[in-house]
Amino acid sequence: MSRIQRVFEQLRHHGRRALIPFVTSGDPDLSTTLDLMHAMAHAGADLIELGVPFSDPMADGPTIQRSSERALAQGVGLRDVLAVVAEFRRKDDQTPVVLMGYLNPVERMGYEAFARAASQAGVDGVLTVDCPPEEAGALTEALYAQAIDPIFLLSPTTPESRFPEVARLARGFIYYVSLKGVTGAATLDVADARDRIHAMRGRVGLPIGVGFGIRDAQSAQAVARFADAVVVGSRIVQAIEEAPAGEAVDRVAALIREIRAAIDSCVGPLA
Amino acid sequence: MRRYDLPDERGHFGPYGGRFVAETLVQALDDLRKQYERYAQDREFQAELAHELKHYVGRPSPIYHAKRWSQHLGGAQIYLKREDLNHTGAHKINNTVGQALLARRMGKRRVIAETGAGQHGVASATVAARYGLECVVYMGAEDIKRQAPNVYRMKLLGASVVPVDSGSKTLKDAMNEAMRDWVTHVETTFYIIGTAAGPHPYPMMVRDFQAVIGQEARTQMLELAGRQPDVLIACVGGGSNAIGLFSPYLEDEAVRLIGVEAGGLGLDSGKHAAPLSAGVPGVLHGNRTYLMQDDNGQIQETHSISAGLDYPGVGPEHSWLKDNGRAAYVAVTDAEALQAFHDLCRLEGIIPALESSHALAYAGKLAPTLDKEQLLLVNLSGRGDKDIPTVAGLSGLAL
Q1: B109 and B239 belong to one structural domain
Q2: Measured between beta carbons, which residues in chain A are less than 8 angstroms from residue B286?
Q3: How much is the pLDDT for A6?
Q4: Between the N and C ends of chain A, which has fewer C-beta atoms within 10 Å?
Q5: Degrees (nearest 5) of the Cα angle B141, B143, B145?
Q6: Same-domain status, B108 and B220
Q7: What is the mean pLDDT of residues A84-104?
Q8: Distance, in angstroms, between B71 CA and closest chain A CA?
Q9: Edge-to-edge strand order for the sheet containing B280-284?
Q10: Which of B186, B283, B298 sits opposite A130 (nearest CB)?
């Protein structure tokens, strides 16, 4: 059983939802990223999504674009991200880590070389935003071979006829993009997301996380009523950006505790 | 004879092309593909397109035998396909008319576009005005500074021009921003991509709309010279004018095809925009193709004297034609392009676009190596009026 599966099993057993924060590796620098990962796990994150910086983040809004630019300005690349994960694993062998990014850095390293290096570093899942299932065959094979879960997106525009194709390749969990747009764009339509997730249940056979547009404890709580996991990205990256030097880790930890408390008020079966 | 019937059903040209986009856009691209395939076979749509190309764009564009320049070079005869004489001054409008007619058929009232030099932005703003569509053009903040007249032109035509401040603030970043707009307004908006790149079906669709260049050339060369040319030469940024010229000749293997990339300050300098000459394959903007990228897979900033060629990728069909050897790709430097620009001005009375000047520069190198019976057809993809401030600036003049 993969780390990601195990975490969702345990949470389900206790009737709880997963909290999945996102940070960009190397924002503001790699050593802070490592501190942030430990602090987030300690503050109540169940799984960590680690952004791999890319020069052309087409699916991201301004907040995550800027974080990517800050990381790239220091020359942070995919190999550095894997090194941070390996370092994290020296002290934490429980919290799953999912890399989230764009396909080209992975393509450049080569699918098999990447999958091997990621597995050695202790990566549990990989989400390449610009690689839909139709183009993902060779990459998913390479990831399966190293027992890494390929994570796929579903969106408000995905027709139900595509669910089986996505579910066939996906492992770990499904990431439901809760709004049409880029990361951090707007607040989500909770009722619409709930209806869509009800439509997916039983069709995809995996836990479903909801991300994009979750701005605060209140929206996290609303989503936690019907989703297995809540993904918070831009709001955390914004906290890092706005924190005075040296305070990013504490501020993010406080934010995680606040959101954790909010979603833990939704204990019991999913709505 | 080899048959060229790519892309396949999923938009692949061999290993290139495809549809590498976030999930939110998959359905929109599926719809677009279905609608495009339907209208490509629809007699009424094709008749309307032909009517617009004739009466609004001014097609067919002539082919002109550049006799003085050919004589000056002392070798092969050079013919020019005069896309510079189209309405708005470049080949770009062939595609924007096609896509705007499709947008109207699909009930989309809002169109968006990315632009580098501003030619595709102007061509998009033009057709939006012509068909009564709302138009938003994304343009890098750097390019807005370099191309002020085209920015004003777009505004005159009623378009909103949105400056893009992210990344290198040029064409690739404008394309990122247009994609972000599209993903946000996907149900109401039609994205008019300006070159034969992007996710399937764009490379195929843009090629088909631009293929009118090569189709006309086949007829015109027979009338004018009694036979088809020995060599076709076109500049390649994204590569839409080149694929438009090459496409109807692909199966005619006696005709050599040469694409000319922007060599900038020279391929060794690293300051260029020549992914086919000096890049490696990767994935950007929805397709797999040759890219300018570093060892980490980050896209590199490019340099070219010509804003329209200043792009780190290239249409996927060109990547395929390079690998299978059907077309050859070369690069010429800024300085060589500029020399050809001046030569055509002085010897033929034609001011070419700096983009097209790259194709002319290579023709100027090749012609003297061939005998006088050989025929070269160069795609003069646009006129150079927009480049006059740039060229004057290089001569130390401020206009």
Answers
A1: no
A2: 130
A3: 97
A4: N
A5: 75
A6: no
A7: 98
A8: 47
A9: B12-13, B16-17, B287-291, B280-284
A10: B283
Q: Which residues of A touch B28 (CB under 8 A)?
A: 157
> Of B167, B186, B206, which residue sits at a domain end?
B206
Q: What's at B305, amino acid-wise?
A: I
pLDDT of residue B90: 96
Burial class (CB in 10 A: 0-12, 13-18, 19+), B190: buried
Position B207, amino acid: R
Closest chain B C-alpha to A35 CA, distance in angstroms? 24
Please tell me the predicted confidence (pLDDT) of residue B1. Answer: 56
Whether residue A11 contacts residue A266, with contact meaning beta carbons closer than 8 Å, is answered with: no
ipTM confidence score: 0.95
Tokens of A222: 């609303």
Catalytic residue among A49, A124, A149, A228: A49
Query: How confident is the model at residue A188, as a pLDDT?
Result: 76
Residue B184: which CATH number? 3.40.50.1100
| Residue boundaries of the structural domains of chain A | 3-264
- pLDDT at residue A232 greater than cutoff 70: yes
Please check the confidence at residue A249 and state whether its pLDDT lies above 80.
Answer: yes
Examine the residue annotation and report whether A247 is marked as an active-site residue of this protein: no
Cβ–Cβ gap B27/A157 under 8 Å = yes
Distance between B103 CA and the closest CA of chain A, angstroms: 19
CB atoms closer than 10 angstroms to residue A261: 13
Q: Residues B228, B169: one domain?
A: no
Same domain membership, residue B286 and residue B177: no
Q: Are A103 and A86 in contact (CB under 8 A)?
A: no
Q: Do B297 and A106 touch (CB under 8 A)?
A: yes
Q: Answer whether residue B399 is part of any domain.
A: no
Q: Using the beta-carbon criterion (under 8 Å), do B26 and A72 form an inter-chain contact?
A: no
- Residues of chain B short of pLDDT 70, as ranges, are 1
Residue A108 near chain B (CB below 8 Å): yes
Q: Does residue A70 or residue A201 have the better pLDDT?
A: A70
- Residue that is written with structure tokens 């109540």 in the block: A44
- For residues B266 and B368, state if they share a domain: yes
- Mutate: best of B10, B24, B295, partner A, most A CBs <10 A: B24
| pLDDT recorded at residue A187 | 65
pLDDT, tens digit, for every residue of B169-228?
989 999 999 999 999 899 999 999 999 999 999 999 999 999 999 999 999 999 999 999
Instruction: Report whether pLDDT(A185) > 80.
Output: no
pLDDT at A12: 94
- How does the average pLDDT of chain A come out, rounded? 94
What is the residue type of A159? Answer: P
| Residue from A168, A158, A236, A169 nearest A197 by CA | A158
Q: Using the beta-carbon criterion (under 8 Å), do B166 and A69 form an inter-chain contact?
A: yes
Question: Could you give the number of structural domains in chain B?
Answer: 2
